[in-house]
Design goal:
Chloramphenicol Acetyltransferase, alpha+beta, seven-stranded mixed sheet, three-stranded antiparallel sheet, 10 helices
Length: 301
C-alpha cells in the first residue's frame, strides 16, 4: 500500500513523461506493443548438436529461449519493471511463467508454472530448472500451488468466483495481496513464454494480462523454411517465428530496442550463455552503458 508491495519496490526517480503515461494508458491492453522477429535456427541446431556430442546433456529450443530471456532481463533490469495502480515498480526477482501440458491428447489438462531466477544462471542451470518443473507437473495427478488456488476459488458458485477475483484484484491494486498468493500466481511474473512449436503451431501475438503484473509475452512457433538474401542470391533458410507483446509503459522504446538487439546476439551465439553472469547491473533510470559492456562482451563479439 502507498507504493509498497511484496513483489516489488516503487521506482521513484523516473522521467515525468513516463510517470504520467500509466495514468493516460490505465490498462495493459491500452499499452500493448507487438513485434515479430525471425530467428535463424542454425545456431540453435548447432548448439544442441554440439552439446549433445560433447556429453553436456540434451537441450531444446525452449531451454535456449528462456536462458536468453533470463540473461537479457538480468543485463537490462528495467525490463523487469511493472505497472500497478499508476505506479512503476521494479521486481524483486526474475520470474518466467509458461504452460505445462499433462499429455498430448485434446482432453489433457494444462497447468501453469512460474520459475524464479537470479539472473546469474548458466544455460545448464536454466535447463535443469525447466526440466525439473516439467517432470514435477507432467503427471495427471500432480497439483502445484497454482492448481490448488484455482481449485479453491472455483469450488464456489460463479457469482462468488467473480467476487473473489474482484477482491484479489483490489488487494493487488493496493499492494495488499499476500506474498503467498503472489508466489503461486503465474500472472505475477516478469514474462510469459508460450511454446507453440511444441504442438507444431504458429507463433501468436498473445495479450499481456490485465490481471497480475505481467509486462511481456513471448511466443515461438513452428520453424519454417523461408527465402532469405545471402550475398547476391536468395536461398532457403530455416527460421523460428518469435513474436513479442509488451507493456510499453514501464520501459522506453530505445532501451527495449537496445536489449532486443543483444537478445538476438544471444540467440545467434547461445554458447555465451554457458558462462554465468558475473555482475548484475542495478536498475537505474539513466542507463550507464559502461556497466553493460563487460556482461555483454561475449554476445557482442
Amino acid at each position: 500500500m502507498f507504493g509498497y508491495r511484496a513483489d516489488g519496490k516503487k521506482v521513484r526517480d523516473i522521467d515525468p513523461i513516463q510517470r504520467i503515461v500509466p495514468h493516460i494508458m490505465r490498462h495493459r491492453h491500452d499499452a500493448m506493443n507487438f513485434l515479430t522477429v525471425e530467428l535463424p535456427c542454425e545456431p540453435f541446431d548447432e548448439f544442441i548438436k554440439k552439446e549433445s556430442a560433447d556429453g553436456n546433456g540434451e537441450y531444446d529450443y525452449m531451454h535456449i529461449i528462456i536462458a536468453g530471456l533470463v540473461r537479457i532481463i538480468a543485463n537490462y533490469p528495467r525490463l523487469n519493471r511493472f505497472v500497478m495502480n499508476g505506479r512503476i515498480y521494479k521486481r524483486n526477482v526474475i520470474n518466467i511463467s509458461f504452460v505445462v501440458r499433462k499429455g498430448m491428447s485434446p482432453d489433457a489438462p494444462d497447468t501453469t508454472v512460474k520459475l524464479a531466477f537470479t539472473g546469474r544462471e548458466t544455460i545448464a542451470e536454466v535447463r535443469e530448472k525447466i526440466n525439473e518443473v516439467i517432470v514435477a507437473n507432467s503427471n495427471m495427478d500432480s497439483n502445484n500451488g497454482t492448481d490448488k488456488l484455482a481449485r479453491l476459488i472455483t469450488f464456489t458458485p460463479n457469482v462468488v468466483i467473480a467476487m473473489l477475483v474482484g477482491f484479489i484484484k483490489f488487494l493487488d491494486k493496493h499492494g495488499l495481496l499476500p506474498k503467498s498468493v503472489i508466489g503461486v500466481s503465474p500472472f505475477h511474473t516478469t514474462a510469459f513464454v508460450t511454446n507453440m512449436k511444441s504442438i507444431k503451431g504458429p507463433s501468436i501475438y498473445h495479450h499481456v494480462y490485465d490481471f497480475g503484473n505481467t509486462g511481456m509475452f513471448f511466443s515461438m512457433g513452428k520453424e519454417a523454411m523461408v527465402p532469405v538474401v545471402s550475398g547476391k542470391e536468395v536461398v532457403p533458410a530455416k527460421r523460428l517465428p518469435f513474436k513479442i507483446v509488451t507493456d510499453e509503459r514501464f520501459c522506453d522504446g530505445f532501451y527495449f530496442s537496445t536489449a532486443l538487439r543483444v537478445l538476438r546476439k544471444y540467440y545467434t551465439h547461445p554458447e555465451v550463455l554457458k558462462e554465468p553472469l558475473e555482475e548484475l547491473p542495478d536498475d537505474v533510470t539513466v542507463i550507464d552503458r559502461h556497466s553493460f559492456k563487460k556482461s555483454n562482451r561475449g554476445a557482442e563479439e
